[in-house]
Write a structure and sequence with these properties.
Blueprint lengths: L7 H8 L9 E7 L5 H9 L11 E6 L1 H8 L4 E6 L18
Antiparallel strand pairs: 1-2, 1-3
Length: 99
């Protein structure tokens, strides 16, 4: 595994993976902008959809093994963890001034 291509959140999440074959981590895959047919085939073999040359960011849910294999590809620039965003409810206290 090429840890230099992983962001800190993804590297940390990989430490908590129980089954390295289970696709359980949502990631952004940053690649070179022009991919050859072999690179496209590799991405598609991991279940990445919408892979076309000219596109350089893909999202996928991958296993730890798939992340390890992708990190070794020369055309992969970086892998970053994608996390579910949650809405944060903020209540603003609007105090009233009495005259």
């Amino acid at each position: 595994m090429n840890y230099q291509k992983l962001d800190a959140a993804l590297a940390t999440a990989l430490n908590d993976v129980q089954d390295s074959e289970e696709a359980s981590l949502a990631v952004f895959i940053h690649t070179e902008p022009v991919l050859d047919s072999a690179a496209i085939a590799v991405l598609e073999s991991f279940g990445v959809s919408g892979v076309i040359s000219g596109k350089d960011i893909f999202t996928a849910i991958l296993s730890a093994n798939a992340i390890s294999q992708l990190s070794e590809q020369p055309w992969v620039i970086s892998l970053k963890r994608s996390q579910q965003l949650r809405l944060v409810h903020k209540i603003i206290n609007t105090g009233k001034l009495d005259a």
